[in-house]
């Protein structure tokens, strides 16, 4: 049987030995494209082209006989005709085509319709041209060839034809395998999956876990995971790869108990008349326990442990492989089948479709979240329509729900939409609370969703939820046990998976299909519920570092669910600001200012406040000149709208001065702040936080940067006690003042004292702000600098060398602080003598 030669390739897919036949002079690019695709699809390629000779014919025909599949590329050239033992005067390619048919090989024929270069064709030779046309007619009569006009069409038809022929071989193989074989094998197994990518490590792990050796037998592994990850395909790939190792290999449909029991009745009958009496399950268990050879049972799509418990063999030298959506199995048995990595997924799309657009393949792989079923479905639809991956991706963004219901995947009974629709229906029937939780999670980000923060009693939400939503959601928020039951139900269907620390993650396509299948009249209600629940979970004080982990957990979900106009996004932006993510915070404030300008007007106080924050963060993110210019424009608006002495006007003027100094003009900044200080002291008060943090602190700073380090040191020494009283000793403003006093102490000539002050300051900054906060990184840089200035050049060198990669990763390679550290490292390397 031809199919008996098919082997398991990398990842368990079919690896066929494929003979490629064509003339070469006129089809060199076509041959290379075909060979490249076959290699990418993990087939073994044979192409016996050699210089023209009589002896080459026999070796070519022998190679045809040894292959599993024959591929012909036929253009408009007839090719070399061996003169000996060739009464019809056929070309070698023609002889190979006939030999493949005589040997019963599956044949894929690809006929070029265009003639790119007439000089390489036989059109000018009447005799050969007649032979070309006769050969093409013979091919058309016998194998239903596919036609192509360019390389993309060639690869498309090749992939379709190879897949179809391999499926025919496998179907025949499956029919034969379902019967007892004379050698004593008893087999019922679905065909091997023709395409299986990225499962090499998983199959190797199955080999290790199911291999013989010390320990309890039979050995059991449960493959569980999201519907569409290819659990059954992995199980079949493993079973086919080990088919010759056991006397019995049997696959059961395990979803329905009656069907599963019938499968045991069939296996008992296949084992022989002596096993047909009494209970077939008991009979099969007895036969397996007494079998001297190995055996493998595959229980496909088991609902859970209780569904297969009585059917699992209690003894015997065998292996049991179970596939299930349910993740809840005994410890040591379960192994999740994950989605594919994005690079592997993109490779699959390119190889499966023949589309060489790697950028489109990568983008589509990401949009589909690496889900094998969705990838296969997209490839099948692309091939069926003759479209490109880029076109599919564009259509997916517009018609996602429709596309997820189109494209028939190979060896799979349903699409993503139909497969998950059944899971959702079953979930809704068995646990409405879990179905409601999934609907809530559908409007979050796919990342870890912090249920411990979202599912909290919140009476204030009562008026924000529709009655239909509240009836399902409120019990989950008020009863921890109800919430736990809902999570367990989602895990039984593998629609959500643990993400650590009480969080759950949901695949992006599960979210998409869940949202698409919510009745239209309820969809907005669930979307608004997600907005309300996420916003209510965002902590109230973004300045408190103790709350930052909660902000970080909620950030991706707020970005997905909330709009720039929602109040919670203001707290998210402030959290990003104070935790040191200046560029991200700036972008949110830009969005907020644009939205407020649209809704409230460009000069509304809330709009101007968002613009001011965006300008400030522009400077904090490294663009001091841009911040200066933005604040200069705001000063004009504030003076016109509020008056020249209004607090907002004064603060905007102070910010112009600050970023003037940071842009390189410390003298101008000092002078502007010196003129502004008495006005702020009079209008705001001498100990007002803005007077202290913005005007007095910056005046001291730019006094030092303008050349008077001792004067700056003394100003900070006078400011620090007031700041500790107003802000507190552990506030970030107080830490900043302490850091600047240490800095200018060193610049005034006392490097050792500066070093010691930074050594004390650094642990406090790490504790209060975190080790990756920009202020902490700046303190590390200053400690390194003054370590060197105090006489330890090697110590400074090593500290800067350790700091630089952290700044490059957190701030970016071109941030001013990163550039300064790179320069300092070079300086201290030189000073240390290296």
> Count of DSSP helices?
36
- The CATH architecture of one domain is 3-Layer(aba) Sandwich
- Low-pLDDT ranges: 1-13, 50-54, 177-183
Strand order of the largest sheet: 8-10-11-12-9-13
> Percent range for helical residues?
55-70%
CATH C-level class of one domain: Alpha Beta
Structure description:
It is a single chain. Among the domains are: 2-174, Toll/interleukin-1 receptor homology (TIR) domain (Rossmann fold); 178-336, Rossmann fold; 342-403; 430-537, no CATH class. The protein is 60% helix and 8% strand. It has 36 helices and 16 strands.
Draw up the topology in text:
Blueprint: E1 7-8, E2 14-15, E3 17-21, H1 28-40, E4 44-46, H2 55-66, E5 69-74, H3 92-102, E6 107-112, H4 126-143, E7 146-148, H5 151-177, E8 186-188, H6 200-210, E9 219-224, H7 231-241, E10 246-253, H8 257-271, H9 280-290, E11 294-300, H10 305-308, E12 318-324, E13 334-336, H11 342-353, H12 358-367, H13 372-385, H14 389-398, H15 400-403, H16 416-430, H17 432-441, E14 449-450, H18 451-454, H19 467-478, H20 480-492, E15 497-500, E16 503-505, H21 508-517, H22 520-537, H23 548-561, H24 567-579, H25 582-599, H26 605-620, H27 624-641, H28 647-662, H29 666-683, H30 689-705, H31 709-727, H32 732-747, H33 751-768, H34 774-789, H35 793-810, H36 816-831
Parallel strand pairs: 3-4, 3-5, 5-6, 6-7, 8-10, 9-12, 9-13, 10-11, 11-12
Antiparallel strand pairs: 1-2, 14-16, 15-16
Helix pairs in contact: 1-5, 2-3, 8-9, 11-12, 11-13, 12-14, 16-17, 16-21, 17-19, 17-20, 19-20, 22-23, 23-24, 24-25, 25-26, 26-27, 27-28, 28-29, 28-30, 29-30, 30-31, 30-32, 31-32, 32-33, 32-34, 33-34, 34-35, 34-36, 35-36
């Amino acid at each position: 049987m031809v199919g008996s030669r098919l082997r398991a390739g990398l990842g368990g897919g079919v690896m066929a030995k494929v003979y490629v036949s064509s003339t070469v002079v006129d089809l060199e690019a076509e041959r290379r494209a075909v060979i490249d695709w076959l290699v990418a699809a993990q087939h073994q390629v044979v192409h016996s082209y050699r210089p023209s000779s009589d002896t080459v014919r026999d070796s070519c025909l022998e190679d045809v006989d040894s292959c599993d599949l024959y591929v012909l590329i036929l253009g408009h050239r007839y090719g070399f005709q061996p003169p000996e033992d060739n009464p019809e005067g056929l070309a070698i390619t023609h002889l190979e085509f006939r030999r493949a048919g005589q040997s019963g090989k599956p044949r894929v024929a690809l006929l070029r319709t265009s003639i790119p270069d007439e000089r390489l064709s036989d059109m000018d030779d009447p005799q050969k041209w007649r032979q070309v046309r006769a050969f093409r007619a013979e091919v058309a009569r016998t194998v239903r060839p596919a036609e192509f006009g360019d390389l993309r069409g060639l690869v498309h038809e090749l992939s379709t034809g190879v897949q179809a022929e391999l499926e025919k071989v496998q179907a025949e193989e499956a029919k034969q395998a379902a019967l007892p074989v004379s050698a004593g094998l008893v087999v019922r197994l679905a065909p091997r999956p023709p395409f299986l990518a990225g499962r090499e490590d998983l199959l190797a792990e199955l080999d290790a876990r199911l291999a013989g050796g010390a320990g309890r037998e039979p050995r059991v592994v449960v493959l569980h995971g999201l519907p569409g990850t290819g659990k059954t395909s992995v199980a079949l790939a493993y079973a086919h790869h080990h088919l010759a190792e056991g006397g019995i290999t049997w696959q059961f449909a395990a979803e329905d108990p009656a069907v599963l029991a019938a499968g045991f009745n069939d296996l008992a009958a296949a084992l022989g008349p002596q096993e047909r009496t009494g209970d077939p399950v008991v009979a099969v268990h007895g036969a397996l326990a007494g079998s001297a050879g190995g055996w493998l049972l595959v229980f496909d799509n088991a609902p859970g442990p209780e569904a297969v418990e009585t059917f699992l063999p209690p003894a015997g030298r065998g292996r049991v492989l179970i596939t299930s959506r349910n993740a809840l199995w005994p410890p040591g048995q379960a192994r999740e089948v994950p989605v594919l990595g994005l690079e592997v997924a993109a490779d699959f799309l390119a190889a499966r479709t023949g589309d060489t657009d790697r950028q489109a393949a990568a983008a589509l792989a990401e949009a589909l979240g690496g889900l094998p079923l969705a990838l296969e479905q997209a490839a099948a639809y692309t091939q069926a329509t003759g479209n490109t991956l880029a076109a599919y991706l564009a259509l997916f963004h517009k018609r996602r729900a429709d596309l997820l219901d189109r494209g028939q995947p190979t060896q799979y009974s349903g699409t993503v939409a139909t497969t998950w629709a059944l899971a959702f229906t079953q979930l809704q029937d068995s646990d409405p609370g879990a179905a409601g939780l999934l609907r809530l999670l559908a409007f979050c980000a796919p990342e870890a969703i912090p249920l411990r923060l979202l599912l909290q009693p919140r009476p204030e939400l009562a008026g924000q939820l529709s009655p239909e939503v509240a009836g399902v959601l409120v019990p989950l928020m008020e009863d921890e046990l109800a919430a736990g039951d809902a999570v367990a139900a989602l895990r039984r269907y593998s629609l959500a998976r643990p993400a650590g620390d009480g969080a759950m993650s949901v695949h992006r396509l599960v979210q998409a299909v869940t949202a698409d299948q919510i009745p239209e009249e309820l969809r907005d209600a669930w979307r608004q519920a997600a907005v309300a629940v996420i916003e209510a979970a965002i902590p109230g004080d973004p300045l408190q570092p103790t709350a930052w982990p909660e902000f970080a957990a909620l950030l991706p979900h707020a970005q997905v669910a909330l709009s720039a106009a929602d109040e919670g996004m203001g707290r998210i932006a402030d959290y990003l600001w104070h935790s040191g993510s200046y560029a991200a915070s700036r972008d949110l404030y830009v969005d907020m200012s644009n939205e407020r300008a649209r809704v409230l007007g460009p000069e509304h106080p809330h709009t101007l406040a968002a613009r001011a924050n965006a300008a400030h963060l522009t400077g904090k993110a490294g663009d001091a000149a841009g911040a200066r210019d933005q604040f200069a424009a705001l000063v004009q608006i504030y003076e016109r709208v509020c008056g020249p002495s209004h607090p907002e006007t004064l603060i905007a003027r102070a910010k112009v001065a600050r970023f003037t100094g940071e842009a390189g003009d410390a003298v101008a900044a000092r002078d502007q702040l010196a003129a502004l200080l008495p006005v702020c002291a009079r209008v705001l008060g001498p100990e007002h936080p803005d007077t202290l943090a913005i005007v007095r602190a910056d005046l001291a700073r730019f006094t030092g940067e303008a050349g008077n380090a001792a004067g700056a040191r003394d100003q900070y020494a006078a400011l620090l006690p007031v700041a500790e009283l107003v802000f507190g000793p552990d506030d970030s403003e107080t830490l900043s003042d302490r850091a600047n006093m240490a800095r200018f102490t060193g610049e005034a000539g006392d490097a050792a004292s500066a070093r010691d002050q930074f050594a004390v300051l650094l642990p406090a900054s790490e504790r209060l702000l975190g080790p990756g906060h920009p202020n902490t990184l700046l303190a590390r840089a200053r400690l390194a600098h003054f370590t060197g200035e105090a006489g330890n050049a090697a110590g400074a060198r090593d500290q800067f060398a350790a700091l630089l990669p952290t700044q490059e990763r957190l701030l970016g390679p071109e941030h001013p602080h990163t550039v300064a550290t790179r320069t300092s490292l070079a300086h201290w390397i030189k000073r240390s003598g290296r």
